[in-house]
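Next up, a chain.

===
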Amino acid sequence: MSEEKQFQGQTADDIGKKMQESLDKMLAATQKWAEILALDPWPETGKTPKEVVWRKNKSKLYHYYSDKPIKHRIPVLFTYALINKAYILDLTPGMSMIESLVDNGFDVYMLEWGNFEWEDRNLTFNDFVYKYIARAVQKVCQISQTEEISIVGYCMGGTMACMYAALFPKPTLRNLVLLAAPIRFDIGGTETRWLNTTFGNDVDTIVDTFQLVPKEFIDIGVKMLKPVNNFIGTYSRLWKLVEEGAPIDNWKALNKWVDDNQNFPGSSYRQWVRDFYHDNKLIKGEIKLRGNRVDLSRITANLLVLAGENDHLVRPLQAKAAMDALSSADKEYHEFPIGHGGLVFGKVAVKQVYPLLGNWLAARSD
């Protein structure tokens, strides 16, 4: 509708009144938006009840508990990426993958890496697989009094879970769930292309300069892969919520996590860029940890692979590659119309991913 038709038949006073109302509404929304950014405290996250049952360096192994009985005897261990905080898996009540499994009778654990500092700069994937994941698995089986386990690996945590599974036949890995986990690295999107530019190829200079790659360096690099969405879209979405009078708690919780990153130990950063992104060694069977070759075909656990159709960090084909690389007889692949975080947070996660994961595990955990 043209402005002429919109105001046709109205007096100057009517038009002025409507314009003032629109202006007042915009100013009120702007003030509210600014107050949220400047004054509102970050919401509490990771509220599903838990206890620390094992520690290694700065890492903690959490065991979740509930007043509801455990129905499924195979425990579930979550592993996560090195560069982000794992509470995205237990963001807020009602928006938590971990809470969903606990409420449905699963015995759930999570390995949280902690904040890497200067003394951690030389940690490698050898350490993370052998000294952290393998020992966490042993502790889980000891506490839950079982010789079998399920592992759910998100993003890089799924990649590391695969390396563990290929190297450790015992305790028995009954079920392996990979959430947006890169397995093949030569068919990625912007991230793969960026890491194969002159800048990305100069990984030795980056590591030799920083030694402990700072979280700010990683954060800016990841956000620049989709700059408009990350630097502008985030706040325009908040503005829209304020204008509509919609709840903003979930926005605040997610934005807290997006900006809450951690340092990347330089030695493992070097491995991640060179061995995985540059040389694609994982799918080729050329990764060696402590001299032992990581052969994905040795993995026979029941396999569930989940990917996001719009994921710009881990493209669906990067995750789907696990379907052919692993030797699982029982395997499923599901793709959802969401991005990287949408597998664990948001309406699609709550209504589709959580139930799918719970039902799949339940059928294979007794």
User: Anything to note?
Assistant: The two ends are 63 Å apart (CA to CA).
